[in-house]
Write a structure and sequence with these properties.
By secondary structure, the chain is mainly beta. The chain has a domain of 127 residues. It is 9% helix and 41% strand. A hairpin with a 4-residue loop joins strand 4 and strand 5. The C terminus is likely disordered. InterPro entries: Chitin-bd_dom, Chitin-bd_dom_sf. It holds the Pfam family CBM_14.
């Protein structure tokens, strides 16, 4: 009887505390990794917990702001609005990433598109994340940031050119002489 009681207590303790393993992010603090270092770009980020708060990227850092009372952050228009449905969020995509075990890495983007990466958790799982789109007020363009050197940054300049060079060959013949002329034609 006494032995059975001890086994029951030990089993219930293991069941209680063994199943309560906490999943903790390997990244702490504000999401600075989502903010580009380019100073003029405008980037706003959804707060990870509260729909009444948001982050604005300033000089590569995520600075937290709060909407006025009764307003909620709209991630499409980057403004605070009275639409409460903005508080409804979809569940994040979490999957196992071996390189994330025990926080061996904070991020991993092996084999993913340049703008996508994983934010690691201590248990080897990770949440799929996409770099935000930045607005450049100087050009009026939106720029899809890419994950470079553990941070979302402006994509590096492209090494391909848009112009194509082709060669045309013209041949003319006469009774005694053949002339071949090659002229490069540049298509712009």
């Amino acid at each position: 009887m006494w032995y059975g009681l001890v086994v029951l207590i030990v089993a219930s303790t293991i069941a209680k505390y063994g199943s309560d393993a906490q999943r903790c992010s390997c990244v702490t603090g504000p999401p600075d990794h989502l903010c580009p270092t380019a100073p003029l770009l405008q980037v706003y980020l959804q707060h990870e917990l509260y729909c009444t708060r948001y982050y604005k990227c300033t000089d590569g850092r995520a600075i937290e702001f709060q909407c006025p009372y009764g307003l909620y952050f709209d991630t499409v228009n980057n403004t605070c609005t009275c639409d409460f449905t903005l508080c409804y969020r979809t569940d994040p995509c979490i999957q196992f990433v071996d390189s994330c075990r025990c926080c061996a890495q904070q991020f991993d983007n092996t084999g993913l598109a340049p703008e996508n990466f994983y934010v690691c958790y201590n248990d080897g799982y990770a949440v799929a994340t996409t770099c935000p789109v930045a607005f450049d007020p100087c050009t009026g363009e939106e720029i899809q940031l890419q994950f470079v050197n553990q941070k979302c940054e402006v994509p590096p300049p492209s090494t391909t050119t848009d112009s194509t060079t082709s060669t045309s060959t013209s041949t003319s013949t006469s009774t005694s002489t053949t002339t071949t002329t090659e002229e490069p034609i540049v298509v712009v």
